[in-house]
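pinned: reference chain
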Amino acid sequence: MDRDQVHEVVKSGYAEVARRGSGCCGNTATDAHATTAALIGYTEQDIKGAAADANLGLGCGNPTALAGLKPGETVLDLGSGAGFDALLSAEQLGPEGRFIGVDMTPEMLARARTNAVNAGYAGTVEFREGLIENLPVASESVDVVISNCVINLSPDKPQVFREAFRVLKPGGRIAVSDIVLTKPLPPEVAKMAASWVACLGGASTEEEYLGYMRAAGFENIDYTRKPAGPMLTSSLQDPMWKAAVNLFGEDRIQELAATVFSYSITAEKR
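pinned: its structure tokens
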């Protein structure tokens, strides 16, 4: 698929996620979303607090915890979804802080804006429609960039990191949770539309991903990782995965899932 086709596949897939209120990895119930959030690093207060309605089970880590947010900072979220990380960040940023979420899916933006109003953060949280490869954000205007399991969906990751670097103030920082591979996916899996929507088809290897960050200018890159295969293969009967299972077989998908990791990455702009 070319760049425009990837954007359309991801946009339509996540529009459906927004409509049905379930995550990319197949979770469909609120309690399942809460369980997933706990596994990837969110606290019970995060899960049950004002942000609860914005949790659609879409993340693979907790970038708000990684970022060490401070009151009064301006934070930008790449692929903000229904606003879960936005509302958690707003609590930490306080009334003087500001949160900007960018997402390309109108259905997600609608949910996020409603969630911000309902949670009482409409004055400090805003959501803008746009591509993370072409951010509708002024240069050197934000203190922190975060992203949660979204950059892997981009067909032009080097450009995403160049844009993140552009909008950060000197001395700013980035905190990302994302799906990264230990070895490349077979082409026949990577090109499947379903695998893109399910947070897998667009994923890069560690060498590629961190290389994109360095090339964009980021320094002091640090990361940890943990296996993400169980999160993916727990939903093999979800409609977005059935095509892959039917074509390659469950054993093959399980084998591929062993190469998938959830990375928590931080870096700085000098």
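why pinned: The longest strand covers residues 168-181. The chain has one domain: 3-268.
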